[in-house]
Amino acid sequence: MNWKSIILYLPATAVVIGLLLVVFSTAFPPVHARIDNADQQQEITEFNSTVSQVNQWFRNDWQVTGLAKAPPADEKILLRRLSLALHGTIPSLEELRRFEADQRPDRLQQWCREMLEDPRFADYFAERFTRAFVGTQGEPFLVFRRDRFRNWLVEQLKQNRPYNQVVQEIISQDGLWTGEPATNFMTHAVLNGDVDENKLAGKTVRAVLGQRIDCAQCHDHPFADWKQHDFEGLAAYFGQVRLSAFGVEDRKNQEYKVEDRITLEERTVQPEVPFQENLLPDSGTRREQLAFWSTHPANRRFSRAAVNRIWALMFGKAFSEGAPYYTRVDDLPDPEDDEGTGTALDLLADAFVASNYNIKQLIETIAALEVYRLDSTTDEIDDSIVRQQIDHWAVFPLIRLRPEQVVGSMLQAASIKTIDQNSHLLTRTFKLINENDFLKEYGDFGADELDERAGTVPQALLRMNGKLFEESTRPSPFNATPRIALASGSPEHILETCFLTCLTRPPSQKEKQFFLNKWQEEKSSRWPQRTHDLYWALINSPEFSWNH
Asked: How many Å apart are CA 151 and CA 343, to the nearest integer?
């Protein structure tokens, strides 16, 4: 065959080779694609298994206690629940219309996943974790940058970095607080130019291990196994931390010393952990050793504490094991000795470790649980049985919204479109200024924001008559009330739109009849004013300020 013949055959040969490659690639996808698909399938299997196991744990508990569970909640209410938990605000009317149009059978799970990828999630949860680790104070200003610590956490959440790695860096990082944001955990405990080892020890155990040992700083804990020497041993891990021109550093030749309360003499304290000493590594700085020990997979206090905090942010209150009292998020009992024999919290903690401390996967798991999707109402009329249903999670707990959720929901209700990172600069600036002003007047719970609290009369009055409500709802081209009044077309549609925007549900037949009759009697009122008045009634209703 000469060169001319070869050239003539080339196009046909190329087509045949191309077809063979297509067939081969379809039948035998690249190795990395097959591995990714296998990993994804394994992840789905583990996810479904965890959801099934936890659901069964609660069903067994309800059967033993003889309690009937509440019916499933409406999906719009579940969307509201998720939006409050993950973004700190109710869903916008824009989001609700998209949700209504979504015909996917698993739309709630898909929306949960999309919410976790929304920058609002990282912003909101970063603030919640920042409060747990460094509180809300801004001092000491010269060596502490709370905003840098928070912004760093935002990036960790966006990347979905394993939670154990984040905590390890928080405890062990050195360097300058402006260049190494994680070091601000150390510098937030600076007092009169020196690092307060006691504050760091107490904060580490509360934020990382979910328990309180603060009182053991002065004496043995009266209600737990924590002893004073346990507290001192943990504080000693921070005893070499000092500030210099280079920022936070460990001085290895320095020892941690305390004044003996009996002899008043100074004594040296060696670093020591109160349990599971075998988990300590043999090398590294003292803080690196503590960080490794605190987050070790076998240290179940760590995984339980993380799950309990996420649980509290999702439900509004910390997990309790059927006890008739409120459990604090950072005051967990000791875990069971035998792994796999505990409660739903232990099942979720084990799955959290198995997922490589994947926060987003943990949230998706909790959102898929039967207990998370129960209604917050029950047909039971006996108060004592209702109390048991609440204690055993047979009904979704009604918890008052925290201040940032109240202001976030008020601002979102006042806007037709979603307020997020894509909003106009003026909208975002207005939101930021009003949030700060409102929180100052309403009251900020600080680091203990997940503790149970009752509402106050001044808080109710602030919602009713405060500047925020008046500025965000009075008729103007930028607010929702006149736009709803002019665009809805009929009184019935106005009523439905206002209820959806404020309460994330349509009005009941009784509510609809009441307002339509009232509007018919008030023939002189204009529709923008009627809509404004309806907004006032809905936002100041008890339903608006609870996490049903």
From this structure: 35
For residue range 225-284, list pLDDT tens digits in order: 667 888 889 999 999 999 999 999 999 888 888 877 777 788 888 999 999 999 999 999
Give the integer Cα–Cα distance in Å for 332 and 308. Answer: 9
Strands 190-191 and 194-195: antiparallel
What pLDDT does residue 221 have?
Answer: 58
- DSSP letter assigned to residue 241: E
pLDDT, greater one: 422 or 38: 422
- Helices and strands (H and E) in the chain: how many: 24, 6
Nearest to 190 by CA among 242, 130, 239: 242
Within a 13 Å sphere around the CA of 437, how many CA atoms are in the beta-carbon half?
Answer: 14
Q: Is 40 exposed, middle or buried (0-12, 13-18, 19+ CB in 10 A)?
A: exposed
- Do residues 503 and 495 lie in contact, with contact meaning Cβ atoms separated by under 8 Å? no
> Running DSSP on this structure, what letter comes out for residue 477?
T
What was the pLDDT predicted at 60?
95
Mark 367-402 as b/e (b = at least 16 C-beta within 10 Å): bbbbbbbbbbebebeeeebeebbbbbbbbbbebbbb
pLDDT at 460: 64
Could you give the CA distance from residue 281 to residue 174 in angstroms, rounded to a whole number? Answer: 19
User: Which helix (H) or strand (E) element contains residue 259?
Assistant: strand 256-259
Query: Nearest Cα to 70, choosing from 370, 315, 318, 323?
Result: 370
Three-class DSSP category at 143:
coil
Taking a C-beta distance cutoff of 8 angstroms, is the pair 545, 401 a contact?
yes
Cα–Cα distance for residue pair 482/486, rounded to 1 Å: 6
Average pLDDT, rounded, for the chain = 85
What's the CA gap between 341 and 355, in Å, rounded?
Answer: 20
Does 116 have pLDDT greater than 90?
Answer: yes
Instruction: Answer whether 170's CB lies under 8 Å from 160's CB.
Output: no
* Contact (Cβ atoms closer than 8 angstroms) between residue 329 and residue 312: yes
Determine the Cα–Cα distance for residues 300 and 442; give it in Å rounded to an integer: 37
